[in-house]
Amino acid sequence: MLSWLLVRYISLLLVILLMNFSRSLPAQAANIDPYIARYLHITEQITVDLDGQGNTKEFSPQQLSDGKQLFASNCINCHVGGATLPDPEVSLSLTKLKQATPPRDNINGLVAFMRQPMTYDGSEETYWCRQLAPSVLSQQQVENLAAFVLTAAKKAPGWGTEVFSN
Q1: DSSP label at 157?
Q2: For residue 18, what pLDDT is reported?
Q3: What domain count does the chain have?
Q4: Residue 163 has pLDDT above 60, yes or no
Q5: Are residue 9 and residue 84 in the same domain, yes or no?
Q6: Do 71 and 129 fall into the same domain?
Q7: What CA–CA distances, in Å, run from 145 to 36, 121, 151, 162?
Q8: Residue 71: which domain range?
Q9: What gap in Å lies between CA 104 and CA 73, rounded to an integer?
Q10: CA-CA distances (angstroms) from residue 106 to 7, 15, 37, 47, 58?
């Protein structure tokens, strides 16, 4: 009799846990920006170049989604679709990010730029780009933003180009 009650109790507990778990999944997925899956084709964790020396860092779809939202609130006024409106010659394409001095085609390089914006050739500070001080965005937030930009530069159709395509 006791074992039957124990089995019933455990079964009921499992049903409750599964119901709660399955309810939380759509809520988590609802926080992911559709752009991340549709255009970047990211549905699971990815690795992004951290420093140009072979070190990488992992980012989840949620972190990329957070980065996209930060991009929308901090960068999109000048960088629509990866273009750079104040200086169209210097887009956020992967090629242009690699050719910058210092290179901005990895998390650390792009974060350093966002913390202290410099001209494309690295010779002086620029006021075209908004400085994202630690008091404005945390290190993780700026890294999420950088990961979004780098992932979009690699995967989004037309990102940072003059010709947009599918």
Answers
A1: T
A2: 44
A3: 2
A4: no
A5: no
A6: yes
A7: 13, 22, 10, 22
A8: 31-155
A9: 21
A10: 54, 45, 21, 11, 13
